[in-house]
Write a structure and sequence with these properties.
The complex is a heterodimer. In chain A, helix 3 packs across helix 4. Chain A is globular, with a radius of gyration of 18 Å. Chain A is an all-alpha fold. Chain B is mainly α. In chain B, helix 1 runs parallel beside helix 3. The longest helix of chain B has 24 residues. The chains are: A mainly alpha, B mainly alpha. The interface between A and B is large, with 48 and 38 residues.
């Protein structure tokens, strides 16, 4: 159960307060889970929606769905992988619901000279890459998110996603190969 | 070890070097052309990722407040509570206006007209001030 799993993390273990109901302690544990995972979940929502306001809505909806389905999280499952999957579903639903619109580009401030200097990639290529990320499979997106955006070592990603290090490296390799193909196709066109 | 996992390892080592700010080109040069190209894509991806700072703590707190509000409220009660809040807002104003007595009691429609009147008055005053 999700609540049980959440409680396995020392940082999210709620102190049993006298007089508090079970649901209050569950809520406390859930808040701990939120604090531990929201960084990755929010960045994933941004990756999928490329719109800050929409990303906020997707994150709120994802945690709400997670709360409602907390008892369905199987023993041994990893909460982050579970949350990222829910987030992806929420982003897909949000995309279906909304009318077609021009995406706001999540670009760094063009007046930021530091970014310009650091940038080894043109703004056009950056945009193609962001677009291409949305075409990856769920597990490829999640590995890219944790490796490049959260900058986690592959061992930790493996632990959080409940996979082996070799599997994570293979997913990462396939994701990069797919991104390269998409970049090449974009350059050809 | 089969050739494919070796390439996986090499690309991964390049990414580790990138994340630590070390030179990865030398590591990549020991691999196939494909591995070198993928390391190049990884470098571009890391640049893009680092160009997008994560949302701040305040934003996360604001989202949590939304979630906490919703999880404390049963889904079916959510819409009803929203309506109650709207009614309470007008309900709190109407009785206070009614307490001053005189004429028929204030209703929601009257309050809407009253609000429009205040807005128009403000608009007119701002116009006067500009003149």
């Amino acid at each position: 159960m999700a609540a049980d799993l959440v409680l396995t993390s020392p940082t999210v273990r709620p102190a049993p307060l006298p007089g508090r109901t079970q649901s209050a302690s569950e809520e406390c544990a859930f808040e701990g889970l939120y604090r531990e995972t929201v960084g990755a979940v929010h960045r994933y929502a941004m990756m999928l929606t490329r719109n800050p306001a929409k990303a906020d809505d997707v994150v709120a909806e994802a945690y709400l769905r997670a709360w409602r389905a907390r008892h369905s999280l199987a023993d041994g499952s990893t909460p982050l992988a579970w949350l990222l999957t829910i987030t992806r579903h929420c982003a897909i639903d949000a995309e279906r619901k909304c009318r077609p619109e021009v995406h706001m580009e999540v670009l760094p401030d063009s007046a930021d000279p530091e970014w310009e200097m650091r940038s080894a990639v043109s703004l056009a290529d950056a945009d193609v890459l962001r677009e291409a990320l949305q075409q990856l499979t769920a597990e490829q997106q999640q590995v890219i998110l944790l490796r490049f955006y959260e900058e986690l070592p592959h061992q930790e990603i493996a632990q959080r996603m409940g996979r082996s290090s070799g599997a994570i490296r293979a997913i990462q390799f396939r994701a990069l190969a797919r991104l390269r193909r998409m970049l090449e196709a974009e350059h050809v066109s | 070890m089969s050739p494919e996992p070796t390439e996986h390892l090499l690309v991964d080592r390049c990414i580790d070097a990138m994340l630590q700010g070390r030179d990865w080109h030398e590591i990549a040069s020991g691999g196939s052309a494909e591995a070198q190209e993928l390391a190049e894509v990884a470098a571009q991806l890391l640049t893009v990722a680092r160009g997008e700072p994560p949302a701040g703590e305040k934003r996360h707190q604001a989202i949590w407040r939304r979630i906490a509000h919703l999880i404390r409220m049963p889904a079916t009660a959510s819409a009803r509570a929203s309506r109650r809040r709207e009614q309470a807002a007008s309900g709190a104003t109407a009785p206070s206006l009614n307490s001053h007595g005189g004429g028929r009691p204030w209703r929601d429609a009257d309050l809407d007209l009253f609000a429009i009147g205040i807005w128009q008055r403000g608009h007119w005053l701002r116009g006067e001030a500009r003149r």
